[in-house]
TrEMBL record, chains A, B:
Keywords: Amino-acid biosynthesis, ATP-binding, Diaminopimelate biosynthesis, Kinase, Lysine biosynthesis, Nucleotide-binding, Transferase. It is an enzyme of class 2 (transferase). It comes from Brevibacterium gallinarum. PROSITE patterns: ACT (PS51671), ASPARTOKINASE (PS00324). It holds the Pfam family AA_kinase. GO terms for molecular function: aspartate kinase activity. It comes from the Bacteria. Its EC number is 2.7.2.4. This is Aspartokinase. Pathway: Amino-acid biosynthesis; L-threonine biosynthesis; L-threonine from L-aspartate: step 1/5; Amino-acid biosynthesis; L-methionine biosynthesis via de novo pathway; L-homoserine from L-aspartate: step 1/3; Amino-acid biosynthesis; L-lysine biosynthesis via DAP pathway; (S)-tetrahydrodipicolinate from L-aspartate: step 1/4. InterPro entries: AceGlu_kinase-like_sf, ACT-like_dom_sf, ACT_Aspartokinase, ACT_dom, AKii-LysC-BS, Asp/Glu/Uridylate_kinase, Asp_kin_monofn, Asp_kinase. Residues 279-355, 361-434 form the ACT domain.
Length: 434, 434
C-alpha cells in the first residue's frame, strides 16, 4: 500500500463548496487504496483577515501572540475538511502541527522545522483514518510555544511530513496546473513543465518562481521526496519535482512519455523577480577588507544579499563602486545601516534603484551544452534590452534589467530557447564556452 | 500579593475596541498590584459563525472535529487580548486550554474538567506576565484530543483555574451588572443582589437564572472559590457568590454595608424557566414498579427529568396519572421512547404540553422563616394564576403555571416577597409550617 501526502492551499479550501470538492478528491485516493495524509492551509484569505485584526489591536504585535493567532486559521480549515470527509463516509482526524509532531526552533513567524515525530499520524493511519494536519505551524522544541513557519510554510510541512513518513509522493495542490516555463501572464505561449530536477527547481524558486518556496524544495531534495505540483481544479498531471523515476503507482501514459523525452530539455524555464532593488555604494576605498565591512554591516540587519558586482571607479582610480541586489522591502534598513557606518567605511555616497527586474534562465542542460549564455545575450541585444548585472551558477544565468523592460526580456529569452513550442524541442548549441 | 482570575465573555471582546477596553481593565489590576489570570471566550458571535460553517459542510459533523473547530474561536480572542495588553506596555502570554493544563474527560462538546495542572500558568505569572487562557476548552486525559466544555464552559474554566491556583477571587465579567432578584425585562423593579450563598446561587441556576451555569457554581462551591459576577461595561460592584466574608483586598464601602445587612435577606430572588414541557402519562396501572419502568425508559434516552407529580386517576381507581417536566427539546424523544414501551408499561395515552412556565422562589432564609410558601400561594391566587405542579427543596419553592401567565406570576411573587424595594427589607412571616 502506498502513502500519499497531499497539500491543499488556501484557494483550494476557500469556502464550504471547495472544502467538499477537496474532500471528494481525497476520498478518491482512499478508494484507490492509498493511505492519505493531508496538509491544509487556512481557508482563502483568512490568514490575511487575522493579520488585519492583529494590526487593529496593536501596531507591533508580539511575535509569540501573532503566531498563536495565525494558527487559528489552519485549525478551522483542517477541522471542516475532516468533517467533509466524514460526511462522505470515510474516517478522518485532524491534528495541529504540535499534535502531528512538527518540532521547530523558536523563531516566531519564520520557524524552521528541526524534527518531525509523527507518531500520532501513524496511529491515525493505522486506524484507517485520513490524517489531516495543519500546515504552516509547529511547536518549539525548547519552550513548547506555538510557532509558524512563515508564508509558504504549508508546503514545507507537507514535504517534511512526507519525508518523516517515507511517503511515496508529496502532492502540492494549488490553483495552477504546475510549474511553467515562464509566467503565463507574461508569456502566453509558456507551457507546463512535466518533470524537473530538484536542483533546477531550487534555482527556479530562488529566482522568483513563486509556485514552491525555496525552503520546501531544499527539504524535498535533502530527503529525496518526489513532489508533484498540480491543480486542485483539474485531474491533469502537473509538474513532478524529482531526480528519480516517477513511482510505479503514479505512472500514467503522460508521465512515461515525459520520462522518455527527459534528455531533450536543456533549459527548463525562465523565471523573473520584481521584488529586488539595487544598491550601489559609490567611492569605496580600494583597500582590502572594505567589501567585508560593507557586507557585514548589511548582514547584521539580517538582510539577504543576492547579486554582487564590483567595478573600478572610472572617476577615482583609488576607489571602487560596489553594487548589490537585495529584497526591496529591506532597502531602507540597509541604507540606514550603511549610512551609520559611512565614516568607518569611508565611501562617498549611496545610489538606490528599486526599478529593476531580474531574469533567470534555468536548466541542467546548460552544463553540457555550450553557448547557452550567448543565446541569452544575443536575444536581449536583439530586443534592445540593456543588461545591468550578471550572475551565473552551474545551471542558471541571471541578469538584471530595468523593471519596465523585464517582461520583454522574459519573452525574448523564452522564444530564444525554443520554449514557445508546445512540445519542447532540443536546441542545439554550437561554439565553445557559454 | 493577591491573585485574581478574570473571565471575559464574548460580548466583552466582540471587536478590536472592546478588546482594548478589556486590556485596560486588566492592566488596572496589574497597576493595583494584583497577579492576573484572564480566561476569555471567543469574540462576539464567532462561535456561532463556526457552527454555521460546520453545518454548511456536514449535517452531523463528528464531535471530535467540531470541538477542534470551535476551539479556534478562543485561540483568536486570547492572542489579540495578549497583544492589546502588550500594547499597553505590560507582559502577557496566551495559553490554550491544553497548555494551561485543563484536563477533561473525552465527552466532546460537553467535557467535564477532571484535573487542572496549571504549571505553565504559574511560570508565566512568576515571570511577570498576565496569563491569558482560552476558556471553554481542554484536552482529554486519555487520548490527548482537544475537547470543549459546552456553552458556559468559559465560566467553569475560570472557576477551575481559580481553584487550582488558589486565587483570591474569580471575577466573571459579562454585559449585565450581576445576579438580579428577577429578570429585569419582566420585573422592571428587580434589583441586583449584592451577595448570595453558593447554595442559593445553585438553586437559582438550576431554576433558569442564566447568568451562571449550574456546573460552574457547583465547582465554585466545592472548592470554595469566591465568585464576583459583574459587568465589563462599568466599575460597579456586581454580585458576590460566596459563603465566606469578601476577601480583604476587594472590600469596598458597598460590600461592607452588604455584609452587615446579610441577615435580612430571606428570599434572594425569583427565577423563571420557559424551556420545559410537561408530559402526562394517563392511566398507568397502579402497581409497584410502574413508575420505575417509566423513568428508566426516559433515563435511557439521557433526558433529565425535573418535577414529578403522581395522582390517583379520578376516572379509574386502579390506575394513576404520572406527570413530569423535562426539557422541551427532549419532548419528541421522550414520547417516542414511551410509546415504544406502551404495551409493556400498559398506560392509556400521553398528554404533552409545552405551553408551561416554571417559577422558582429561592432563599436560604426560608429554612428559618415559616410562611414563605403561603405567601407565594396567596400572591398567585390574588393574581388569579392557577398552579399546575409544585416542588420544593430546603431553600426553593417551584411552581408550574401556564406559559402565558408566567410573567404575571414572576411579578406577583417579586412584589409579595418585598423584593421591589430598592433596599431589600426583611419580610416577617407568621404562622406555622411553610
Amino acid at each position: 500500500m502506498s502513502l500519499v501526502v497531499q497539500k491543499f492551499g488556501g484557494s483550494s479550501v476557500a469556502d464550504a463548496d471547495s472544502v467538499k470538492r477537496v474532500a471528494k478528491r481525497i476520498v478518491e485516493y482512499r478508494q484507490a487504496g492509498h493511505d492519505v495524509v493531508v496538509v491544509v492551509s487556512a481557508m482563502g484569505d483568512s490568514t490575511d483577515d487575522l493579520i488585519d485584526l492583529a494590526k487593529e489591536i496593536s501596531p507591533v504585535p508580539p511575535a509569540r501572540e501573532l503566531d498563536m493567532l495565525l494558527t487559528a486559521g489552519e485549525r478551522i480549515s483542517m477541522a471542516v475538511l475532516a468533517m467533509a470527509i466524514a460526511n462522505l463516509g470515510y474516517h478522518a482526524q485532524s491534528f495541529t502541527g504540535s499534535q502531528a509532531g512538527v518540532i521547530t526552533d523558536e523563531s516566531f513567524g519564520k520557524a524552521r522545522i528541526i524534527d518531525v515525530t509523527p507518531g500520532r499520524i501513524r496511529s491515525a493511519l493505522d486506524d484507517g483514518n485520513v490524517a489531516i494536519v495543519a500546515g504552516f505551524q509547529g511547536v518549539s522544541q525548547t519552550t513548547k510555544n506555538i510557532t509558524t513557519l512563515g508564508r509558504g510554510g504549508s508546503d514545507t510541512t507537507a514535504v517534511a511530513l512526507a519525508a518523516a513518513l517515507e511517503a511515496d509522493v508529496c502532492e502540492i495542490y494549488s490553483d495552477v496546473d504546475g510549474v511553467f516555463t515562464a509566467d503565463p501572464r507574461i508569456v502566453p505561449s509558456a507551457h507546463k513543465i512535466n518533470i524537473i530536477s530538484y536542483e533546477e527547481m531550487l534555482e527556479m524558486a530562488a529566482s522568483g518562481a513563486k509556485i514552491l518556496m525555496l525552503r520546501c524544495v531544499e527539504y524535498a531534495r535533502r530527503y529525496r521526496v518526489p513532489v508533484h505540483v498540480r491543480s486542485s481544479f483539474s485531474q491533469h498531471q502537473g509538474t513532478w519535482v524529482t531526480d528519480a523515476p516517477i513511482p510505479e503507482a503514479f505512472r500514467t501514459a503522460q508521465t512515461e512519455e515525459t520520462e522518455e523525452n527527459m534528455e531533450q530539455a536543456i533549459i527548463s524555464g525562465v523565471a523573473h523577480d520584481r521584488s529586488e532593488a539595487k544598491l550601489t555604494i559609490v567611492g569605496v576605498p580600494d583597500i582590502p577588507g572594505k567589501a567585508a565591512e560593507i557586507f557585514r554591516t548589511v548582514a547584521r540587519q539580517e538582510i539577504d544579499i543576492d547579486m554582487i558586482v564590483q567595478n573600478i571607479s572610472t572617476r577615482d582610480p583609488g576607489r571602487t563602486d560596489i553594487s548589490f541586489t537585495l529584497p526591496m522591502d529591506d532597502g531602507a534598513k540597509a541604507i540606514e545601516a550603511l549610512e551609520a557606518g559611512k565614516a568607518s567605511i569611508g565611501f562617498d555616497h549611496i545610489q538606490y534603484d528599486d526599478q529593476i527586474g531580474k531574469l533567470s534562465v534555468v536548466g541542467a542542460g546548460m552544463r553540457s551544452h555550450p553557448g547557452v549564455t550567448a543565446t541569452l545575450f544575443d536575444a536581449l541585444a536583439d530586443a534592445h534590452i540593456n543588461i545591468d548585472m550578471i550572475s551565473t551558477s552551474e545551471i542558471r544565468i541571471s541578469v538584471v534589467t530595468s523593471a519596465e523592460l523585464l517582461d520583454d526580456a522574459v519573452r525574448a529569452a523564452h522564444t530564444a530557447y525554443g520554449l514557445d513550442a508546445d512540445d519542447t524541442e532540443a536546441i542545439v548549441y554550437g561554439g565553445t564556452g557559454r
